[in-house]
């Protein structure tokens, strides 16, 4: 996340400088690399949450992120009024969003350095403290407190699943003894990241399906965001203010949708909600395919 924040600061600073169109494109590329840090956050949340609570927490996190769609365009209502210089650089409605975002990412970088601790480390510390307070725990409690990951010790050519061999252990002493025996049976070796390993891990029906749905949804969103401003300008003669208000309304809608997802996740399966989302996305794209060509023809 720290590396991602550095990329975001660099990309937005380049956007503020804006020496040429290629410089601007490079700035967006660098900022896009930094945006990839979001996957680290999602993975960390998935690592420390149970299956039952994961969907609701992820929807809340994404709703907080998407709230930027509400706040960002709203700030643009005021940022578009800027018109001055900082040294050789002009500060106007085209460049000040880059400077503003660079300042925000710098603030986030400081907050990460000073206050953030990896979630899985916090989880491990909590388990260690509870183990010291309660030296004797049941096997059910032990299995419930383990992080919801598939912890496997790689020993030679075979994968030895520790969790399958600790059921029925009645104390932490026995637990530590069992783990120690497993680790000393053979030297622990790292499994090679071969092509066969990646194929086995990721080329599965459920993984490919989810990646396809994610690609289609993000492609549709980015395409709409790219074309919304020029289309609104051509067909409706909207300027910066009208488009900013439009994105504010879209941000409110997005937040409401994620609140709805959090509520529905307690009553519906993830598969059902994914099907509902795909159906609505197909309807929206079909509606655009029907309306936009006719709008250009004056209908």
Automatic annotation (TrEMBL):
Subcellular location per the Swiss-Prot or TrEMBL entry: Membrane
Molecular function terms from GO: transmembrane transporter activity
Pfam families, per database record: MFS_1
UniProt keywords, alphabetically: Membrane, Transmembrane, Transmembrane helix
Entry protein name: Major facilitator superfamily (MFS) profile domain-containing protein
Main location: membrane
Gene Ontology annotations for the cellular component aspect, listed alphabetically: membrane
Organism, scientific name: Mytilus galloprovincialis (Mediterranean mussel)
Membrane-spanning segments: 22-45, 57-79, 99-117, 207-224, 244-261, 273-292
Lineage of source species: Eukaryota, Metazoa, Spiralia, Lophotrochozoa, Mollusca
Membrane topology per record: Multi-pass membrane protein
Database matches in SUPFAM superfamilies: MFS general substrate transporter
């Amino acid at each position: 996340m720290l590396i991602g924040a550095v990329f975001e600061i660099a990309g937005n600073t380049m956007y503020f400088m804006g020496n040429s169109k290629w410089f601007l494109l490079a700035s967006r590329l660098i900022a896009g690399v930094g945006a990839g840090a979001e996957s680290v956050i999602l993975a960390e949340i998935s690592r420390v949450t149970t299956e039952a609570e994961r969907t609701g927490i992820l929807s809340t996190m994404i709703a907080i992120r998407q709230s930027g769609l509400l706040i960002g365009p709203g700030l643009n209502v005021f940022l578009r009024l800027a018109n001055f210089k900082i040294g050789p650089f002009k500060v106007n409605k085209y460049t000040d969003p880059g400077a503003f975002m660079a300042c925000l990412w710098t603030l986030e970088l400081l907050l990460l350095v000073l206050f953030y601790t990896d979630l899985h480390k916090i989880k491990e510390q909590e388990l260690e403290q509870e183990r010291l307070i309660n030296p004797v725990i049941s096997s059910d409690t032990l299995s419930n407190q383990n992080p919801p990951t598939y912890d496997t010790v790689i020993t030679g050519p075979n994968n030895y699943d520790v969790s399958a061999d600790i059921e029925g252990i009645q104390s932490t002493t026995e637990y530590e003894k069992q783990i120690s025996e497993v680790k000393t049976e053979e030297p622990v070796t790292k499994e090679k990241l071969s092509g066969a390993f990646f194929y086995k891990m990721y080329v599965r029906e459920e993984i490919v399906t989810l990646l396809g749905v994610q690609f289609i949804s993000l492609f549709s969103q980015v395409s709409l965001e790219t074309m919304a401003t020029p289309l609104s300008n051509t067909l409706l003669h909207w300027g910066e203010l009208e488009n900013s208000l439009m994105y504010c309304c879209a941000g409110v809608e997005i937040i409401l949708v994620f609140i709805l997802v959090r509520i529905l996740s307690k009553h519906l399966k993830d598969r059902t909600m994914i099907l509902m989302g795909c159906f609505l996305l197909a309807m929206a794209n079909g509606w655009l395919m029907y309306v936009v060509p006719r709008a250009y023809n004056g209908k």
